[in-house]
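Sample A.
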Amino acid sequence: MNRKEFTDRLFVLALVLDHDMTQKKADAYWEIFKDYPDKELIRAINVSLKTSKFFPKPVELIGIIEGVSTGSELYDRYKAEREAQRAIERTNQLLAEREQWKKDSIVSPTKLIKALKEGKSLDEFKRTLPKPNPTT
């Protein structure tokens, strides 16, 4: 859908829902929706024409396109996705720390031999090794 077709549909929606639409607002909506498929945009606008009492905010049209009925449901979905992403990032961070600890905690034969030559006992040497991270 080109900008003019989209703007025309938006002005019809504004007219039906008694909303003062300006070209500036229409341009802002176009920037938000220009990459959405025509079929989905037309359906969202038509659903709004049939079901809305007020002119829809972008989040409401996006909700119609994505199959979510309200803006709060769309926000809840966004929040859940964000929390899941944070959990994935934290898990990856912990796995990386664990791998680093494994690398750091491998006993170097050279260090062990050096410690023994210096007269340290095996127990003294073990105490110098890094402690495991309790989060791994």
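Sample B, a different protein:
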Amino acid sequence: MPLDLDGTLLRAFAETARRSGVRRAADALGRTQPAVSQQLRRLEDLVGRPLLVRSSSGVSLTREGELFLPYAERILALGREALSQVRDAAKPKGYRVGVIEELATEAYLRAVLARADALEPKVAILFVVDSWRIASEGFDRGDLDLVLSGPIPQITPRRRGAVRLAWAHSPGFDVQQRPLPIALSAAPCPWRDVLLDVLGRAGIVWRTAIEGGGLAAMWSAVKAGAALAAVIPATAPPDLSIIEASSAGLPDAPTIDIALHQQASPGLDEALDSIASALWDALLEDVLWT
């Protein structure tokens, strides 16, 4: 008749051998000492050999016990590994995706998630929405698997495109006032530099009305009439007025680069490639490219 080694009995034996005592093993297992002693006797009966020498000072392994212990530990480890593999296989693999605030609209994120839901095997996406600087630093540290942002210095993007910005303000804002109040992203930001270069070459006298503080703070200042902003038309709040630069005496708003960066993986990661494609394809639908 085949013999089956009960994991509960093996665990009692391994803990007793590891801790050199039945009482200490019982404490570690959350069982009573008599219960653990009974399990040890059952295991010895099953094996047909004494595995432990009991004395007033504790327990020690017999020669058979020393031979049996590595096998018991391997069986227990294999059991844990088997459970872990099966449980992990049922969980969707997680990916951290950085998206800059200017692009992370509800419509865009929904479009990405709709594409991701169709992937097999299933994946879980954690969006990290922040500024270009925070996204770039997260990618450099390896904290983010993908980043959709402006270009990151010294890193070749997986995809790259350009989008034309537009000037936007609240109704009633005077675009002729000088110095012209401007909303700016906090430095460092590649788009900030491009914007200031355009204003400088056009001879526009300007001042900073709001700087940094996140996109929500910037939108609040612009809606309140405190500043003019250069925006991506497709992602700007609907209650802002998009203006024609020439009719307002302004230079054309600059064209900015948008880049998709993907971490290099040691092997083929089809899921990561698919998420990257979902990010870019959704962007093509929701953002007006030049």
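Observation for Sample B: The CA atoms of residues 123 and 271 lie 7 Å apart.
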